[in-house]
Design brief:
387 residues, seven-stranded mixed β-sheet, Aspartate Aminotransferase, domain 2, three-stranded antiparallel β-sheet, 14 helices, alpha/beta, single chain, 13% strand, Aspartate Aminotransferase, domain 1
């Protein structure tokens, strides 16, 4: 744990630095783009059903470790319509957010020493999740546009590979992996299984699956590859990150599905989650089609992208999420983030996502934060002769 603490998330470190600076200079004088903490209010339907369910004064005790039957059934019906597949409540496990879903999936699938392939840039906590369950992390690069590099993935598959852990839309890049790319990946994994008689599962981390822009859509990984588990949460799409509610969905036709489901349910208990939060399970079953106002995030994205583009910063416009991942004007992204901090701008170095030379900005902030930070970004851009 001492070693883990030294490697711990840059995201949290910068967030805590922001708290310190805000006490020194005042909240409106610090421009914190470090944490993906949703800034929008949940939709009205959330409060409506929260009040309704809280007033019933029931359902706060223990339950099956997989969650309330009626909530699992509601999620299954939702997924059945979304993916045109015969999901049932038996394919759904309610979890403590997507993080809980990924952990129980890894616990269910991994034997000690099994390899998990992750494409960089990636969410730093994956390092620890994989280690939690005896897995071995194998990091592969992505292409220049952050799409999956299928050749790199194929070159890194071995007889010990058990899982490909993906995140689309991706944190930190905002990239959405295309249907063509995912079908190419599926063919690689199917050929491997035919050759070795060993299944490689995809765990798709999808907490941003409704936060997409410019008419982009998220391909159904369930339609593409049956050996798939999807981890999802309502943290970002409903702006209820602190409520820790999500689910793990296992493809109805996955090989060994019953064994995976049984193992994941047990993992939910023995990892200490026990079950997903009861009140939130009772609420979200009514609002599975609801989201925050995505147009507000798109406005923030466009405001930030337009401003930084005029200053000479280089980046790929995100298709989804609420993150921007520009190139740093110097190779040392940690040094550059500290230069931004001198302007009281808090960003996260790309090194924290296994992508040195970049930095991440979370634009799920107040519009005024972006507007007031842009002149400070301009001073930095001028200092590096970007303008």
């Amino acid at each position: 744990m001492d070693n883990f603490i030294k490697r711990a998330s840059w995201i949290r470190e910068m967030f805590e630095e922001g708290q310190r600076l805000k006490k020194l200079y005042g909240k409106d004088q610090v421009f914190d783009f470090s944490l993906g903490n949703p800034s929008l209010e949940p939709p009205n339907a959330f409060f409506k059903f929260l009040e309704k369910e809280a007033s019933l004064h029931q359902g706060h005790g223990y339950m099956p470790n997989a969650g309330f039957d009626e909530t699992r059934e509601a999620v299954a019906e939702y997924l059945k319509k979304e993916h045109n597949l015969p999901f049932s409540s038996k394919d759904i496990i309610m979890t403590s957010g997507a993080a809980g879903a990924i952990n129980i999936a890894l616990k269910a699938l991994l034997d000690p020493g099994d390899e998990v392939i992750v494409a960089a840039p990636y969410f730093v906590e994956y390092n620890f999740y994989i280690d939690n369950h005896g897995g071995v992390l194998k990091v592969v690069p992505t292409k220049d546009d952050f799409d999956l590099d299928l050749e790199a993935i194929a070159d890194n598959i071995s007889v010990k590979t058990k899982v490909i852990l993906l995140n689309s839309p991706n944190n930190p890049t905002g990239q959405i992996y295309s249907e063509r790319t995912l079908k190419g990946l599926a063919k690689i994994l199917e050929r491997h299984s035919q050759r070795t008689n060993r299944i490689i599962y995809i765990i798709m981390d999808e907490p941003y699956n409704k936060i997409v822009y410019d008419n982009y859509s998220i391909p159904s990984i369930f339609q593409i590859y049956p050996q798939t588990l999807v981890a999802n949460s309502f943290s970002k799409t409903l702006s209820i990150a602190g409520e820790r509610i999500g689910y793990l969905a296992i493809h109805p036709n996955a090989i060994h599905k019953e064994a995976i489901v049984e193992a994941a349910i047990l993992a939910n208990r023995i990892l200490g989650f026990v079950n997903a939060p009861a009140l939130m399970q009772r609420v979200i079953k009514y609002i599975l089609n609801e989201t925050v106002d995505i147009n507000q995030y798109q406005y923030r994205r466009d405001l930030l992208c337009e401003g930084l583009s005029k200053m000479g910063f280089s980046f790929i416009k995100p298709k989804g999420t609420f993150y921007l991942f520009p190139k740093a004007p110097i190779a040392d992204d940690i040094k550059f983030v500290n230069i931004l901090k001198n302007e009281r701008i808090l960003a996260v170095p790309g090194s924290g996502f296994a992508a040195p030379g970049y930095f991440r900005l979370s634009f799920c902030v107040e519009v005024s934060t972006i507007e007031n930070a842009l002149p400070r970004f301009k001073r930095v851009a001028e200092a590096f002769h970007l303008v």
